[in-house]
Amino acid sequence: MNKPPLSQLMDKVDSKYTLITVAAKRARQLIKNDPQFLDSGLLNPVSVAFQDIADGKVTWRRERVGIK
Question: DSSP per residue over the chain, as a string?
Fold first, then answer.
């Protein structure tokens, strides 16, 4: 699997921090939904997460937290 270029990934998010956070959450979700994912050794869950972000399969939403 070819990894998507950083420029393509950055078009989908607002910062590198957001990219890493979204990719980590997606990778954990992949592992949780399919525990044999890691055992197969065929695909790296983080690489799959980056590809999902590049393909638009994963979206995110910025939530504002107010402090009173």
Answer: -PPPPHHHHHTTSS-HHHHHHHHHHHHHHHHHH-THHHHH-SS-HHHHHHHHHHHT------------
